[in-house]
Design brief:
With 384 residues, the chain is α/β, with parallel strands linked by helices. The chain contains twelve helices and 15 strands. Helices cover 33% and strands 21% of the residues. The protein has a six-stranded parallel beta sheet. The protein has a four-stranded mixed beta sheet with strand order 1-15-14-13. A three-stranded antiparallel beta sheet has the order 8-9-10, with no helix packed on it. The radius of gyration is 24 Å and the shape is globular. Bound molecules: NADP nicotinamide-adenine-dinucleotide phosphate. NADP nicotinamide-adenine-dinucleotide phosphate (NAP) binds next to helix 2 and strand 8.
């Protein structure tokens, strides 16, 4: 044994599936793939999202990731050029025909998953017309109750009301940019072009909200459908963690079953713990929340570790000390696995900052793994 305690903190790097026909068509991507593409993640550098076939993109979901994607599609490339966006994405966005993004939510404006700060930011994009249909803003008694219970939802709703009253000109095919929020619509099918080769639109089912008192309202289909034409669909319905071999995994919820961060042997209720194994973050409680949420969440796991340590429930503390990182390094060397240390990462980061400064950007992402590794190595050989 190398350590007394291991904390799993590898997050969520896959996506929830919609489970509707057409999900695999060319031109349909998970929002995560699109985010990785514009952030220069080596695995998505070649995504080639279709920014040419149509002037409209549909984003399914209305969380902050959906807003991030819409912002990249709608912001001027002159402004994007001063950010750390990856160069290949900037080049393709400069040629983009997309002028209109439709953000689709299966519930109403009171249940929109985005937060006020991010919504305000997108509403502040110069020349962007943010539209909400007035009929979607009507409030039911249950909505009023939800808003009373959540200041954050109330703020988002108020901003959407403001957007609905905005007088900025709408998209008319002449270069103006538009973000349209569509509520009460559940994706039923992704539609293909006549030759079946690629996406041509989405079919949406109108919904109404239902729910018991004190429970979140659910979207229920009405059997009435409508279609929106588009050339690009981004599914932004949430991330999903992936299991690793040998680890118990709750496939339904997409997380590691745990109690206050202590990893459980199985998903069954009353299961015992795996001594010394803990979990934090999205892998622990699912893919929601910002850095602040994860800090509070990590506190709980640390408390569990301290409790187990003080009660004598952890591995080898009474005998000799496990070898820790020294032992791990030896094991990795034995298996010929090279590692990137934090210092190596700092060297790559410095190289990215230097590349960015030549272009007036905070940094320019290096998108090739071999190049990153060679920078880490080169610089290391120069340092004592
Ligand atoms: P999210 O906030 O959970 O939003 C997911 C969206 O997808 C919701 O609108 C949800 O609607 C919808 N959805 C889920 N399943 C669906 C289905 N089967 N059909 C149709 N719609 C479906 O997830 P996220 O946007 O991926 O963000 C993840 C977390 O990262 C969030 O906590 C977010 O705040 C955070 N984040 C923060 C920032 C920032 O602070 N700048 C940036 C990015 C992400 P329902 O509500 O009806 O389920």
């Amino acid at each position: 044994m190398l350590y007394d305690v291991v904390v799993l903190a590898y997050g969520a790097e896959s996506d929830r599936k919609l489970g509707v026909p057409g999900e695999e068509l060319v031109g349909v991507h998970a929002a995560r793939e699109f985010v990785w593409w514009y952030n220069g993640h080596p695995d998505q550098v070649n995504l080639q999202p279709d920014l040419q076939s149509s002037d409209t993109a549909v984003v399914l979901g209305q969380g902050n990731v959906a807003l991030d994607c819409a912002r990249i599609l709608l912001r001027s490339t002159e402004e994007l050029a001063t950010t750390d966006i990856a160069e290949h994405a900037l080049v393709q966005l400069r040629e983009s025909r997309i002028r209109r993004v439709v953000l689709v939510g299966r519930r109403g404006p009171v249940q929109a998953a985005c937060t006020a700060k991010e919504l305000r930011e997108i509403m502040g994009i110069k020349g962007l017309s943010v539209k909400v249909r007035a009929c979607d803003l009507a409030l039911s008694p249950a909505d009023l109750e939800e808003m009373k219970a959540s200041r954050s939802h109330k703020r988002v709703y108020e901003l959407l009301v403001k957007a609905a009253g905005s007088k900025l000109p709408v998209h008319n095919g002449s270069g103006g940019r538009e973000l349209l929020f569509v509520f009460y619509r559940n994706p039923a099918e992704i539609l293909s072009s006549d030759d079946g080769a690629r996406v041509a639109g989405v079919k949406l089912e109108k919904t109404v909200l239902q729910g018991e008192k004190d429970k979140p309202q659910r979207a229920v289909g009405t059997g009435e459908f409508e279609e929106v034409s588009c050339g690009l669909v981004l599914k932004s319905i949430g991330y999903k963690s992936i299991p690793i071999p040998g680890l118990t995994f709750d496939h339904r919820q997409g997380l590691v079953p745990n109690s206050k961060g202590r990893v459980l042997r199985s998903v069954e209720e009353g299961s015992s713990f795996v001594a010394g194994l803990f979990v934090v973050g999205w892998l622990k409680r699912g893919p929601t929340g910002i850095i602040g949420t994860n800090l509070i969440d990590a506190d709980e796991t640390v408390e569990s570790i301290v409790e187990d340590w003080t009660s004598g429930g952890l591995g080898s503390q009474s005998s000799s000390c496990p070898p820790g990182s020294r032992g791990l390094q030896e094991l990795l060397e034995e298996r010929c696995i090279s590692i990137v240390t934090f210092d190596d990462w700092l060297k790559i980061h410095s190289a990215e900052v230097a590349l960015g400064s030549e272009k007036g950007k905070p940094q320019e992402k290096i998108i090739c793994r071999e190049e990153m590794l060679s920078i880490a190595k080169q610089v290391s050989s120069q340092t004592p």
